[in-house]
């Protein structure tokens, strides 16, 4: 099979709704897990979800090797992530063939296809460890200005991808409510315990680790891309008042660990191959990349061409039948570091990544204010509230506010690779101390 | 059964070597997991390890409820940790009865007892998330002086237990080698990639989470002690030069995530009941505890009376047949926050703890230099190397250096609760970028 076949624009599927303008055309084929029977692997296609287990039972995927089929029988995608890049690509090709127009599997459509609106999605994988990077340079700059007006970017920023470890247990899949946390905040009268009054979102790209490395073995930059199985969207909810009081000297903790939201569909690295782009151009006064972060191929095509959006819907807007309102439009070209550079840095000291580990990019903002990836930036730290079409003002999030992150790749005359939604609604923190 | 029976000094076991002066007398009964058959639960007793699965097969633990027996059949201790505090206590009583002098199980000694020297220990549990606190106030002060001479303790320190999330994947059990990490360090000529030249240890108490909480539900202070299943020792290896360059603004990452070492035996919370003590007295000029961190019972007996030690053995010392040399003696009374306060703080914002999550206390140092919990403190940041009995000097750790943490509780005329060892040897970082 021509390995580029799965990226051809003219290819069509027999599944209804899978046109090239939809989020999930034949060229996308993101994987997810239904929250039933302990977890069931599905593939988004058009308006439907392919039941992979049914496809295995119907022997539609018999060309796959035994261990590849086995990985798809699992209750989550960790075994799929543990496969090497070649095996994941063979699975993509097999799914593509199965769903391509003309395949005899179409006659089993009623057994193979599920209506995703009738099912809940689960987390796509068991997340061993979660790491949050800080690679959106405009966010780092704009958020840094609020804390350190004279020195927004710390000296290390341009030398290495900065990151910290986050909480894996509290990562929930899109659609789960987000409970406003209680915590200590600093006031003019001293620290006080209260529900956070400065709840914020952060627009981030999620990166799912592939096979990973043994403890002590670094993954060099030129192999790093093989170890990212796929991508998604990540909302790194932040309680700015809790974070501001707690974060020195050891970094964010309870300002973040009350909840994070990840999108349910894993957009495979293979689906994004046509949407690779060059890494961010480094201005002349920025330091040269060190050798271990410098690779011609990664500089030429290690970046990603993904459009990002954030929208908000308040309870008032929903009561009045108003649609969600777009807050920001950003793009992955604003990442200072490529995914491969982030992963190479992560393993540089020998830290082991395991299949299903989740990395997030850090907030991705544009240089101007049209693409602020957080309210912190949009409202200049809360002092300049924004006004929504409903007339409501927001400095930070109110209970009932729902934030939805979306993303897509598209070229004129081409097809669209949609990411689906990463959605969460703030609910009131009930009855804590 | 008298619930205090398991703490009586005169009680004796039929197992050889289990005298009250040994680390593992009948009153201790720590749980661990052998690294074989996928993991096998054992209990340390004297010079032996009780094979719990054998005890179940021999129907020596038939008084336990079915789900309690089931938890002991598992390949790790996560199911045991998930039990409520009453069930864990019933298991303790059953094990105590089984191993007490006069029990008929003694006749099956050869089937029940294993020689731990012939077996490797595994990690006692699957660690979902790992959190590192900063509750050793003298360490926070002494390390803080090195970074911020005028302002060693940041303003938040006395108001809440500070913590950050660490890396779970790279936590290894005692005895595993520790690979010196490569990383970026800052030099007078700018940042450089090299193996860390400032490798350090950190003496910490490990706390293993019990049943935990659902996301969004805080565990109040008065229930927090039920959610700590047991304790151990933790070496939070640190690459000070990597850490110093990377840690702002988001905290430690690669300065820590290359490896951590935990001791294999879980000293149960029940075994430590007689060694509870009052919380650290708060000086008059320290702020009063907020209500959610203030509980009469916790202040009276939420602390722990554990002696801590660090020793070093270099390859030169081993070559010359010299014994390991003690570097520090410290004590858990130097923790500014009790374990219950740390756990209550951790869940305050609704962050969910899961059975097997690991919390570490932060480095526990004495106010003076006899009990420095790290070389950073002992050598004033590396400028005043210490001299070992072999004549060797150490500012930071060399390849081949082995650090061992030990701990015990003991009262005059009483018995000893030993923690076993938390041991790791630095090995050379091979062939990275």
UniProtKB/TrEMBL annotation, chains A, B:
<feature type="binding site">
    <location>
        <position position="202"/>
    </location>
    <ligand>
        <name>Ca(2+)</name>
    </ligand>
</feature>
<keyword id="KW-0828">Tyrosine catabolism</keyword>
<dbReference type="InterPro" id="IPR015377">
    <property type="entry name" value="Fumarylacetoacetase_N"/>
</dbReference>
<keyword id="KW-0106">Calcium</keyword>
<feature type="binding site">
    <location>
        <position position="260"/>
    </location>
    <ligand>
        <name>Mg(2+)</name>
    </ligand>
</feature>
<dbReference type="GO" id="GO:0006572">
    <property type="term" value="P:L-tyrosine catabolic process"/>
</dbReference>
<feature type="binding site">
    <location>
        <position position="204"/>
    </location>
    <ligand>
        <name>Ca(2+)</name>
    </ligand>
</feature>
<dbReference type="Pfam" id="PF01557">
    <property type="entry name" value="FAA_hydrolase"/>
</dbReference>
<dbReference type="InterPro" id="IPR011234">
    <property type="entry name" value="Fumarylacetoacetase-like_C"/>
</dbReference>
<comment type="pathway">
    <text>Amino-acid degradation; L-phenylalanine degradation; acetoacetate and fumarate from L-phenylalanine: step 6/6.</text>
</comment>
<feature type="domain" description="Fumarylacetoacetase N-terminal">
    <location>
        <begin position="27"/>
        <end position="124"/>
    </location>
</feature>
<dbReference type="Pfam" id="PF09298">
    <property type="entry name" value="FAA_hydrolase_N"/>
</dbReference>
<keyword id="KW-0479">Metal-binding</keyword>
<dbReference type="InterPro" id="IPR036462">
    <property type="entry name" value="Fumarylacetoacetase_N_sf"/>
</dbReference>
<feature type="binding site">
    <location>
        <position position="363"/>
    </location>
    <ligand>
        <name>substrate</name>
    </ligand>
</feature>
<dbReference type="InterPro" id="IPR005959">
    <property type="entry name" value="Fumarylacetoacetase"/>
</dbReference>
<keyword id="KW-0460">Magnesium</keyword>
<dbReference type="GO" id="GO:0046872">
    <property type="term" value="F:metal ion binding"/>
</dbReference>
<dbReference type="InterPro" id="IPR036663">
    <property type="entry name" value="Fumarylacetoacetase_C_sf"/>
</dbReference>
<feature type="binding site">
    <location>
        <position position="134"/>
    </location>
    <ligand>
        <name>substrate</name>
    </ligand>
</feature>
<feature type="binding site">
    <location>
        <position position="236"/>
    </location>
    <ligand>
        <name>Ca(2+)</name>
    </ligand>
</feature>
<keyword id="KW-0585">Phenylalanine catabolism</keyword>
<feature type="domain" description="Fumarylacetoacetase-like C-terminal">
    <location>
        <begin position="159"/>
        <end position="426"/>
    </location>
</feature>
<keyword id="KW-0378">Hydrolase</keyword>
<feature type="binding site">
    <location>
        <position position="236"/>
    </location>
    <ligand>
        <name>Mg(2+)</name>
    </ligand>
</feature>
<feature type="active site" description="Proton acceptor">
    <location>
        <position position="139"/>
    </location>
</feature>
<protein>
    <recommendedName>
        <fullName>fumarylacetoacetase</fullName>
        <ecNumber>3.7.1.2</ecNumber>
    </recommendedName>
</protein>
<feature type="binding site">
    <location>
        <position position="256"/>
    </location>
    <ligand>
        <name>Mg(2+)</name>
    </ligand>
</feature>
<dbReference type="GO" id="GO:0006559">
    <property type="term" value="P:L-phenylalanine catabolic process"/>
</dbReference>
<feature type="binding site">
    <location>
        <position position="148"/>
    </location>
    <ligand>
        <name>substrate</name>
    </ligand>
</feature>
<feature type="binding site">
    <location>
        <position position="247"/>
    </location>
    <ligand>
        <name>substrate</name>
    </ligand>
</feature>
<dbReference type="GO" id="GO:0004334">
    <property type="term" value="F:fumarylacetoacetase activity"/>
</dbReference>
<dbReference type="GO" id="GO:1902000">
    <property type="term" value="P:homogentisate catabolic process"/>
</dbReference>
<feature type="binding site">
    <location>
        <position position="132"/>
    </location>
    <ligand>
        <name>Ca(2+)</name>
    </ligand>
</feature>
<feature type="binding site">
    <location>
        <position position="243"/>
    </location>
    <ligand>
        <name>substrate</name>
    </ligand>
</feature>
């Amino acid at each position: 099979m021509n390995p580029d076949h799965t990226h051809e624009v003219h290819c069509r599927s027999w599944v209804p709704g899978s046109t090239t303008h939809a989020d999930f055309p034949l060229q996308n084929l993101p994987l997810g897990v239904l929250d039933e029977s302990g977890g069931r692997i599905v593939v988004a296609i058009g308006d439907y979800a392919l039941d992979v287990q049914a496809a295995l039972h119907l022997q539609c995927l018999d060309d796959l090797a035994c261990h590849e089929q086995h990985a798809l029988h699992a209750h989550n995608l960790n075994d799929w992530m543990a496969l090497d890049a070649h095996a994941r690509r063979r699975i993509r090709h097999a799914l593509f063939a199965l769903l391509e127009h003309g395949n005899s599997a179409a006659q089993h459509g009623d057994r193979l296809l599920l209506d995703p609106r009738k099912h809940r999605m689960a987390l796509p994988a068991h997340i061993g460890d979660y790491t949050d990077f800080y690679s959106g340079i405009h966010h780092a700059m704009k958020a840094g200005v609020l804390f350190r007006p004279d020195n927004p970017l710390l000296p290390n920023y341009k030398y290495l991808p900065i990151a910290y470890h986050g909480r894996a247990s509290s990562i929930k899949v899109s659609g789960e409510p987000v409970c406003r946390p209680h915590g200590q905040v600093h006031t003019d009268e001293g620290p006080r315990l209260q529900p956070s009054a400065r709840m914020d979102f952060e627009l981030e790209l999620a990166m799912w680790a592939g096979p990973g490395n043994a403890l002590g073995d670094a993954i060099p930059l030129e192999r790093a891309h093989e170890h990212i199985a796929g991508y998604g969207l990540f909302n790194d909810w932040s309680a700015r008042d809790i974070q501001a009081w707690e974060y020195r000297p050891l970094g964010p903790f309870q300002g973040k660990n009350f909840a994070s939201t990840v999108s349910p569909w894993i957009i495979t690295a293979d689906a994004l191959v046509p949407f690779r782009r060059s890494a961010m151009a480094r201005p002349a006064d920025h330091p040269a990349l060190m050798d271990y972060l410098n690779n011609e191929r990664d500089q030429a095509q290690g970046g990603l061409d993904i459009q990002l959006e954030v929208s908000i819907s308040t309870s008032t807007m929903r009561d009045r039948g108003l649609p969600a309102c777009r807050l920001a439009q950003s793009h992955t070209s604003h990442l200072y570091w490529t995914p491969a550079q982030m992963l190479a840095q992560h393993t540089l000291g020998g830290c082991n990544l395991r299949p299903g580990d989740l990395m997030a990019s850090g907030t991705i903002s544009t240089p101007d204010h049209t693409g602020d990836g957080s309210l912190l930036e949009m409202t200049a730290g809360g002092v300049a509230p924004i006004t929504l079409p409903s007339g409501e003002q927001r400095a930070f999030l109110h209970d009932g506010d729902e934030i939805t992150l979306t993303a897509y790749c598209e070229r004129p005359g081409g097809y669209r690779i949609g990411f689906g939604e990463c959605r969460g609604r703030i609910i009131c923190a009930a009855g804590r101390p």
